[in-house]
Amino acid sequence: MVFALAPGCGRIGYGAASGDGVSVGIDATPLDGLPSGWTSSTPTRVSATGGAGASPAIVPVGLAFTLVYVQRRGGSVHVFASFLAEAGEKLDPDAQVTVDGSGCAAPSVAQNGSGYVVAWRDARNPSFDLYAVSLDASGGRTGADVQLSSAATDAQAPRLVVAGSTSLVAYQEESMNETGVVYRAFQPTGPSGVIVSLSPITSTASGPAAAFDGQGFGFAWADDRSGSGDQVFYVRGDGNGVTTGAIPLTAAPASTKALAMVWAGDRYAVAYGNGADGLHLSTFDATATAVADDPILPAAAGARLDAASLAWTGASYGLAWVDYRDGGGDVYFGAFDVGGALIGEPLQVATSPDTSSVEPALAWNGHAFGLAWHQTPTTTSAPEEGIYFVSLTPP
Fold it and tell me: Rounded distance, CA 168 to CA 360, Å?
């Protein structure tokens, strides 16, 4: 399949916000340039004022969304959860997820029955270790932190996936100048399996992504085992650490960045940035047969596209990514039908020349896409740094 890119792009206005889910300030308007019949909320800043937020992750909850991110509040960096209505209003006060503020970073979130599981890394030990905790529906902790990574390594980029009573986290593991991708199963009370290596220790691996296909778990990542650039690989595994052999999804090494993965009913879809070549989408069934790897969004001349976040509605894909055509990052959104045709035009999320937007996080709640991102001012007159949110509703 071949995905085509329509020329031009729509734009979204935004304003500074109070951090309580109410948008204030100038240019606080819904999207301009949406596909026919689409609507959007007014973008709002979710993170509290007075402290920069980073690394958003999002999960749908009914017709609402729960957003986790890191922010410095009261002198320490913690993971916080915000509970948002579809239009971005806060339904409840923010919940502080972590109790140890030793440089928390890179949170990931998944639903677990009526509550949540959140994973993150922090520096409470000499190395960066990976932890997880279970939360109830209001964000209250229901147990103690569970350490998932080895104390002898640095853990990065956790990606959670939950299926029934099984929780898995895939992440990067750094040790002795080597970087690998691993995963581990766990329960609320502790790890329930060994750390399972997905990439060979002789390669440098990054960008883990994971999804559940109804029977097993799919994992994707990039590594440079060829010695001439990254390739994207896929492995299917289970909660007991049993895996298939690694299958390459890309034919040639390239500069691969920031994978995102979903199960789309009868196939996996993996989106990734390929440097100046733009964004690609690989689709394949659980056994990785009939792999199609296609460029879906070519980069503008001299630009770079990466940091993709992918969601599946049951009939179409939503994709958010970062475009570096103007030097700093700008978050864009695009919708694609099941056949790969772009619906409307790519939409630039934040258009102010005085900000940079990165780290998109996208989810589908059955009615609308929720999109969060980390926005940074480049001048003193721009809106405050923080985590911003907008919802996008198709007809």
Answer: 22
